[in-house]
Specification:
Blueprint: H1 18-22, E1 50-56, H2 60-71, H3 73-80, E2 83-90, E3 107-108, H4 111-116, E4 122-125, H5 133-142, E5 147-149, H6 152-169, E6 173-174, H7 185-192, E7 198-204, H8 207-219, H9 223-232, H10 241-244, H11 247-261, E8 271-272, H12 280-288, E9 291-301, E10 307-317, E11 329-336, E12 340-347, H13 351-371, E13 392-402, H14 407-417, E14 422-428, E15 449-456, E16 459-460, H15 461-472, E17 477-486
Parallel strand pairs: 1-2, 1-4, 2-3, 4-5, 5-6, 8-10, 10-17
Antiparallel strand pairs: 7-9, 7-11, 9-10, 11-12, 13-15, 13-16, 13-17, 14-15
Helix pairs in contact: 2-13, 5-6, 6-11, 8-9, 14-15
The chain binds NADP nicotinamide-adenine-dinucleotide phosphate.
Length: 489
């Protein structure tokens, strides 16, 4: 472990030369009163201000950022007018090999020292998790150091506290990379759409699940096969729970609710369902009906100011712009009162795309430091988060039933009792993924089974759930299959 690079004797954002670089009018070239003898070499260029970066984490994202800062510094300085200097880098393991030329002498395992180092002007947190990231971010902010973070888990659970701390300190807390990786979404929502009355944000914000669902759609493979393929390609973790069960997308939905609606929402407020129950047959039936199934994070304003924030598999018409977003790509579809509909599409993960978003934030934070600009505030207010029971939409429901007379009438009776009307019903061949003989335990013995698929007219979730409860109690219903919400627009 080496010592950090020596801070250069040039104007820095907070160092001894800072005020000269930032505000002294005397340092700017003055207009001449009349013809003056010109110095032979012409006016000397002003040195660029230097902003020194303390990096917490040098994994996928941190290493890609360090590489950019160490190898592309000249181009970044020419483009932005600021020299970003990587001063220190915190990692957990000193022994790990890092494929980042020039980073070795900057490494330390003491993240607190990086934050506290007076030679660090801005802190970038890309270590992930809540602890110690939360304490380190608060510590940096309390010292008046702007923070850039890509940590969705931290922001989705403690964002309110952190933004308040940044506001108190009068510095930036920027987090572009925390949702949809390389897509400049947060900046579009906070700045370009700052005055827009946003009605709904719907996003494919998890690349792993989009890859799995795309593969199931394009090649008819099962969920398990598509997941195994995603794991072999490095798109899914060995333990894929956070992705496939929607936890990752729920954290991002909470951040979208913060940014697009100024709503005080945390990850735990988000209704969440994952994709692990979606079968190849659901995907095939959806395709035949003109739909595709996507895991969507949806944040939607109600007329009374309440907010629906949810993550679940959704059937989208194939003509919808989000339906064509395939593989591990992310996309976010925004609907606003004045702007209408717009969509942002790109790489939602991966070291370099995510580091690109972090770098954008870093340049912004550095620029604000240099010009002493006021940081952009994120004010959150309390909202009522609507329970999922209040959702009203069409539903796709699949059932495995005994193939005998009277079954349809019994099912129709349950649906009718709960005010759920059927738009279409199809009988499918039994699912290849169903266990042989599955569901027969309650029946009188082996008898033929049929797989029924219903698409309902718009209905309330509470009524649909009441139907499911009653259907479970019907002797002819062998198994309830998937329930997928359908969005028509
Ligand atoms: N990867 C992506 O595509 C992506 C996309 C968007 C957002 N993000 C977010 O970006 C953050 C970083 O993700 P990542 O994929 O880069 O994670 P990662 O590969 O696991 O890297 C984490 C880094 O933090 C270091 N670290 C962890 N705990 C530490 C501690 N207590 N003290 C010092 N260093 C510590 C690790 O050190 P060692 O190297 O020594 O283990 C490692 O360098 C996460 O919040 C993630 O959600 C990632």
């Amino acid at each position: 472990m080496g010592s950090p690079a020596k801070a250069q004797r040039r104007p820095t954002a907070t160092g001894p030369g800072a005020s000269q670089a930032r505000d002294e009018p005397g340092t700017q070239p003055q207009p001449a009163a009349g013809p003056q003898p010109q110095p032979a070499a012409g006016p000397q260029p002003q040195p660029r201000p230097v902003v020194r970066v303390g990096l917490l984490g040098c994994g996928n994202v941190g290493a890609a950022l360090a590489r950019l800062l160490l190898t592309d510094a000249k181009r970044i300085a020419e483009r932005t007018g600021i020299e970003l200097e990587l001063a220190r880098v915190a990692v957990r393991s000193a022994a790990k090999e890092r494929d980042v030329p020039g980073v070795e002498p900057l490494l330390t395992t003491d993240a607190g020292r990086v934050v506290d180092d007076p030679a660090v002007d801005v802190v970038v947190e890309v270590m992930g998790g809540i602890s110690p990231a939360r304490d380190l971010v608060l510590r940096a902010l309390s010292q008046g150091k702007p923070v850039v973070s890509a940590n969705k888990e931290l922001l989705a659970n403690h964002g309110g506290e952190l933004w308040e701390a940044a506001d108190r300190a009068g510095v930036d807390l920027l987090f572009e990379a925390s949702v949809a990786g390389g897509i400049p979404l947060i900046r579009a929502l906070r700045e370009s759409l700052a005055g827009e009355r946003i009605e709904r944000v719907m996003g494919i914000v998890n690349g792993t699940t989009n890859y799995i669902l795309s593969r199931m759609d394009s090649s008819g493979v099962s969920y398990r096969e598509a997941l195994a393929e995603a794991q072999s390609l490095g798109y899914a973790e060995r333990d894929p729970t956070a992705d496939v069960e929607g936890y990752d997308a729920a954290a991002k939905a909470a951040i979208l609710a913060n940014v697009a609606f100024g709503a005080k929402v945390v990850a735990g407020d988000v209704y969440r369902e994952g994709i692990s129950a979606i079968t190849a047959q659901d995907i095939a039936v959806a395709a035949r009906l003109g739909f595709t199934i996507k895991l969507l994070a949806v944040v939607e304003a109600g007329p009374d100011g309440s907010l629906a924030v949810r993550v679940h598999p959704t059937m989208l018409p194939r003509a919808h712009p989000l339906a064509s977003v395939r593989d591990s790509f992310n996309a976010v579809f925004v609907e606003g009162d004045a702007v209408g509909q717009l969509m942002l599409l790109g790489r939602g993960a991966g070291g370099p795309p995510t580091a690109s978003a972090v770098l954008g934030d870093l340049v912004d934070a550095a620029h604000n430091l240099v010009v002493k600009g006021a940081p952009r505030k994120l004010e959150l207010h309390d909202v009522t988060v609507r329970p999922i029971d209040d959702l009203r939409c069409a539903y796709y429901l699949s059932l495995l039933v005994a193939d005998r007379p009277g079954v349809l009438a019994a099912i129709a009776g349950v649906l009718g009792r709960h005010h759920v009307s059927v738009r279409s019903m199809e009988q499918e061949a039994p699912e290849p993924e169903a266990e042989p003989g599955e569901g027969r335990a309650r029946g009188a013995g082996p008898e033929p089974e049929a797989h029924l698929v219903f698409v309902t007219h718009p209905a309330y979730e509470r009524d649909v759930q009441a139907c499911l409860h009653d259907l479970r109690g019907l002797d002819a219903v062998r198994r309830l299959g998937s329930l997928v919400r359908v969005t028509g627009r």
